[in-house]
Amino acid sequence: MLDRVYKFFQQTDKFLKEKFKSYTPSVLTIGVGNIQVGGTGKSQLSRLIYISLKELGYKPIILVKGYKGRVKEGLVTSTDWVKWGDEAVENFVLGYKTFVSKDKVKGVKKIEKLGLFDAVIIDDAFQLYGLKKIELLSLNLDKKPEEDKLLPLGRLREELSSIERANACIIFNFKRRPIPQSILKFLVLKPFFEINKLTLKFLQARTENELRNSIVNKKFYTLDEVVIGCAIGNPQSFLKSVEDNGVKVKSIVPFPDHHPINLEKLKSLANSIPILITLKDWVKLSPEQRKDLFVAIPFLPSEVKSFIRKHVLSQV
Prior knowledge:
Largest sheet: 8 strands, mixed
CATH superfamily of the largest domain: P-loop containing nucleotide triphosphate hydrolases
CATH topology of the largest domain: Rossmann fold
Number of strands: 13
CATH class of the largest domain: Alpha Beta
Distance between the termini: 42 Å
CATH architecture of the largest domain: 3-Layer(aba) Sandwich
Structural class: alpha/beta
Number of helices: 11
């Protein structure tokens, strides 16, 4: 019953926005979204599109909501995660121009008025009905989709049939499940790319400059065993990625998404075993707290970039 109520309001919202609030931006606009609550790799895909657009001569910017950040709208200019939100600061630390707006359609219009950028990548945009954009849909098969349900009974934000709206799809399938027919039937004649593994690189850094230099100079560490602490949308996917990269996980301690991790709790479990966190957790710590911690930096397969150029950017 509750899922039917949710479906009614979701479809009503879609109808009203498409009919009465449609908007076509004057700049290239690409949406990266999902139909599942939780981490589905949207941020990593947004950054890869950003890089691809820069290589093509564009001046791109990533638009995010700035979840839990105090600022309602603005160009990210510092590493203050309380002000901007952790995901916005992640982008900023890695060198990606980022704009925060609680209302993303207004955010696109504000970016247009700035006149500094000619391409907008919207992180989490599939439910921005009425906004004309190229749609890249990110799906995660860590749970069998046919066993999932609409919110609030499950984690689906829309029915699987909404896959048909996407211009292209990226499927994160770390458990290497066969893609079910319930999804395949909506991918007919639609380009999609399946990712079975992320390459993780492990580094130590206390400051933003140290982190960037470690990435540029490929100053990475090899880890044998870790204790994981993370406050992200899908901790089990992160655990699977760590194990897929040949690292034994003694234990994982998940914290609520977008919240700071509890270092004291982690250190009491770890003893002398390295503590591994995500970049999303790293930005919420002080330089002193980052001492001796390892942060995992994910890298998408190189083929994903080619796929995006061929099936997403070719539609410009």
